């Protein structure tokens, strides 16, 4: 421990995972049995659960290979958001898909965009501008209306609205389901995430819609550096989710 290390710094340093050294020269997409994978000097990449990483489209495998190729001295999962998301889909979501679908429907029952501020007027207007088009899309696409309330008191959504969300996600493959779940967790909104999945919102539009309240507070009180760093890291996850939606 250096002379400048305190107990907290030393503990944090010891808790950091040891990263594997890069052991390969070339990462490239390749056709494998059942789909497309990533080869490291001709050997297939495996998930943490030791399953051969396999995706249905070459374009997705190529983007995964780019993440592996971009590693320098060590393999840092924090710099491989798309790979992490695919690993999560193949190792986790594939085994718990019913539970993931149920969680997505549950989120829709208390969706961010259904809870509106009572004031000030400019915040109300910004929420309306960002969120009403998503509700209108949900009405057109799902054939149901969601209840909107002012304040934070819980409001129950019509059973038919939640049933419509359940039908919307019941046939999603594990990759898109994983991407949708990740987006939902990052945005706090099933409806924003479904609009992103179905092409109604762009990545930037969905991210902005999810952060109306946060951006309002930043405008009022200024930005906190650590909070902005965390937000940037979350946006990288959101980008990976949007890419997986597009390429899966």
Descriptive account of the structure:
The protein has eleven helices and seven strands. It folds into two domains: 7-79, ATP12-like (2-Layer Sandwich); 97-247, ATP12 ATPase (ATP12-like fold). Helix 3 (81-93) packs across helix 7 and helix 7 (174-187) packs across helix 8 (190-197). It is 57% helix and 9% strand. The model has no long low-confidence stretch (mean pLDDT 93). It has 248 residues and is mainly alpha-helical. A hairpin with a 2-residue loop joins strand 2 and strand 3. The strands form three sheets. The protein has a three-stranded antiparallel β-sheet with strand order 2-3-4. A two-stranded antiparallel ribbon has the order 1-5. Strands 6-7 form a two-stranded parallel sheet. The protein is globular and about 60 Å long. The longest helix is centred in the last third of the chain and has 23 residues, at 225-247. The protein has helices spanning 7-15, 58-69, 81-93, 97-108, 121-142, 159-169, 174-187, 190-197, 203-210, 212-221, 225-247; strands at 20-21, 27-32, 35-40, 43-44, 74-75, 115-116, 149-150.
List its traits.
248 residues; mainly alpha; ATP12-like; ATP12-like fold; 2 domains; three-stranded antiparallel sheet; 11 helices; globular; ATP12_ortho_dom_sf; transit peptide; ATP12 family chaperone protein
Give a brief description.
Keywords: Chaperone, Transit peptide. By secondary structure, this protein is mainly alpha-helical. The protein is globular.
SSE map:
Elements: H1 7-15, E1 20-21, E2 27-32, E3 35-40, E4 43-44, H2 58-69, E5 74-75, H3 81-93, H4 97-108, E6 115-116, H5 121-142, E7 149-150, H6 159-169, H7 174-187, H8 190-197, H9 203-210, H10 212-221, H11 225-247
Parallel strand pairs: 6-7
Antiparallel strand pairs: 1-5, 2-3, 3-4
Helix pairs in contact: 3-7, 3-11, 4-6, 4-7, 7-8, 7-11, 8-9
């Amino acid at each position: 421990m250096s002379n400048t290390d305190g107990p907290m710094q030393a503990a944090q340093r010891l808790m950091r995972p040891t990263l594997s050294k890069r052991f390969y020269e070339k990462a490239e997409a390749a056709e494998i049995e059942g789909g497309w994978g990533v080869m490291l000097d001709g050997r297939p990449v495996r998930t943490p659960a030791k399953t051969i990483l396999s995706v249905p489209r070459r374009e997705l495998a190529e983007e995964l290979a780019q993440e592996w190729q971009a590693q320098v001295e060590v393999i840092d999962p924090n710099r491989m958001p798309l790979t992490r998301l695919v690993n999560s889909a193949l190792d986790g979501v594939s085994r718990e898909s019913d539970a993931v679908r149920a969680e997505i429907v549950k989120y829709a029952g208390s969706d961010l965009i259904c809870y509106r501020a009572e004031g000030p007027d400019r915040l109300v207007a910004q929420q309306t501008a960002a969120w009403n088009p998503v509700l209108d899309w949900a009405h057109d696409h799902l054939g149901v209306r969601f209840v909107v309330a002012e304040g934070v008191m819980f409001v129950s959504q019509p059973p038919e609205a939640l049933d419509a969300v359940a039908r919307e996600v019941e046939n999603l493959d594990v990759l898109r389901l994983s991407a949708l779940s990740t987006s939902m967790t990052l945005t706090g909104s099933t409806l924003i995430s479904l609009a992103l999945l179905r092409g109604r919102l762009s990545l930037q539009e969905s991210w902005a819609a999810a952060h109306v309240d946060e951006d309002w507070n930043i405008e009022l009180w200024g930005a906190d550096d650590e909070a902005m760093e965390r937000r940037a890291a979350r946006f990288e996850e959101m980008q990976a989710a949007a890419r997986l939606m597009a390429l899966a």
